[in-house]
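Q: Here's a chain of 80 amino acids. Please give me its 3D structure as tokens.
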Amino acid sequence: MVVEIDVSTLYNEKAKLTELGNYLRKVDELAGEGNEVVLHGPGPIWLYLKIAHFLHGKACKLIYRSPVTGDLIIFDHNPF
């Protein structure tokens, strides 16, 4: 299953490092287990990096989607 997460929906107005635990809980709920996850939308690089690290071992594939770069595979643990 493909799950898309718009990073900007995780926070209000400005992301705060003190709220990181709350953001990761939301990501955990949205991503599920063993899914292909696509991250997109505006957000600070530190939040993208923490989410990517959090999802490693939880998602089977992680993709970063940007209008500038298109889709970039961050990791892919799908054996097929």
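Q: Can you summarize the key feature?
A: The longest strand covers residues 70-76.
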